[in-house]
From TrEMBL:
Locations listed in the record: Cell membrane; Cytoplasm, Cytosol
Alphabetical list of PANTHER family matching this protein: HYCCIN, HYCCIN RELATED
Location (main, coarse): membrane
Keyword annotations from UniProtKB, A to Z: Cell membrane, Cytoplasm, Membrane
Protein name (Swiss-Prot/TrEMBL): Hyccin
Signal peptide coordinates: none
Protease listed as a keyword: no
InterPro entries: Hyccin
Amino acid sequence: MLAMNQGVVEEWLSEFKTLPDSAVSSYAASLKEKGSLVPALYKVIRENYSDLLEPVCHQLFEFYRSGELWLQRFVLQFLPELLWSLLLAPSAARDPHTSGCIEALLLGIYNLEIVDKDGQSKVLSFTVPSLSKPSVYHEPSHIGSLALTEGALANHGLSRVVYSGPHLQRETFTAQNRFEVLTFLLLSYNASLSYMSSSSLQSLCQLSSRVCICGFPRQHLRRYKGISSRLTVTSEFLVQLVTGIHYALCNGEMDLGSKALDDVLYRAQLELFPEALLVGNAIKSSQQCAALKSGASKEGTRIIQVEMTPTSSRISRNAVTSLSIRGHRWKRHGKTHRHTNRTGFRNTILVSVGSTDY
């Protein structure tokens, strides 16, 4: 590690310890101005053996435990690189003491995230939107006619809520809980995607590609000469990766994001993961939209662009109204139905039961 980078990290380690509690908020806001700090910390995390790794992990945990929002976001930007270092450790024969620092940091963040301020286990809730109601992503009239059935009417307006949790606290990583913890950590990372830097999004895309292709024939196509052993993944883990990749695709990381999405779909096909295939293929199809092709540049506002469909005030021809219901009832009984059309003229419709003449 260069002496300059080492000096930057050592200064960062020492200045936080001397801060009074009243100055933590202003210090958190000033971290973004330290342009050389983030690359130096990435360098520390990526090195196999570094005397600075343990104090860096300890300070990152202190940042997250402080509860200061900007300090927590500062830590989360390194999460993809930390995850890769953790997954890489067994295959690369890294020093157990070195990988233990990263394990302790990730477990600490996980155990803080699964509880609220009072120490009670969190239960996360997610509302599944109804396709019968318009949103920023769709108009019901553009997805075909919805069958008006008794069941559809009964469920109209109802929202389906999915719950996640409570999650168990973990003291160590095992083969059974590793991806459960990592998936939850990625969920926390994705919740703050709009605050992540370009280097963090690039790290996420690189993590996705490496995890999915290592040990498979595509590794030679990507010319990645890292580890050659296959890494076990789960469908839920890949879905969280795809969520972050989607944001990266829309915010200036088109090349890395496209490769990462293809690699995740490649692995999902090999593993037959339906959830990851569904989400990944949906995002890949959306790349054809004009809004996604003209995505924001790296210097622009970080948002996920969607194409807004203008709301039409015109009533559909197939709209069910009281008039059409009365007409249908009268047609069945062979009665005469009089109505006034748009031009104000009264028309008479004679209905003959059993005949095709009207």
